[in-house]
């Protein structure tokens, strides 16, 4: 691919945008499990618990985004501390809802 060709430059720019996209499903299940130091079975359990909904490749394989990897890492942290999986999932959902509410409140609060 030559950066001198306009179509090639657009393709490179598009690829770079994907690397910055928190929601781009860039990681296979095996790579995600390796990065998290867990098993593919643990990731499947998060999918079954409805905490994560990984996208699927054309071949049907799960693909995870960086955002989903952070969620899975938090779940692993809670489970490693002895929290049951279902409770860990609920805690993470509530933490996420709280963070979103705080973000929205900050947008509406006038600066002092």
TrEMBL record:
Residues 26-94 form the HTH merR-type domain. It comes from the Bacteria. InterPro entries: DNA-bd_dom_put_sf, MerR-type_HTH_dom, MerR_fam. Pfam families: MerR_1 (PF13411). Residues 1-23 are annotated as: Disordered. Keywords: DNA-binding. This is MerR family transcriptional regulator. It comes from Amycolatopsis minnesotensis.
């Amino acid at each position: 691919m030559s950066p001198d060709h306009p179509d090639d430059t657009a393709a490179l720019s598009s690829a770079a945008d994907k690397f910055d996209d928190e929601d781009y499903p860039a990681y296979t299940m095996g790579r995600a499990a390796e990065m998290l130091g867990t098993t593919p079975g643990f990731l499947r359990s998060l999918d079954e618990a409805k905490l994560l909904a990984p996208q699927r490749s054309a071949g049907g394989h799960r693909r995870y985004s960086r955002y989903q990897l952070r969620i899975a890492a938090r779940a692993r942290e809670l489970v490693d501390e002895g929290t049951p999986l279902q409770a860990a999932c609920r805690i993470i959902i509530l933490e996420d809802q709280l963070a979103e509410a705080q973000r929205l409140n900050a947008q509406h609060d006038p600066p002092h």
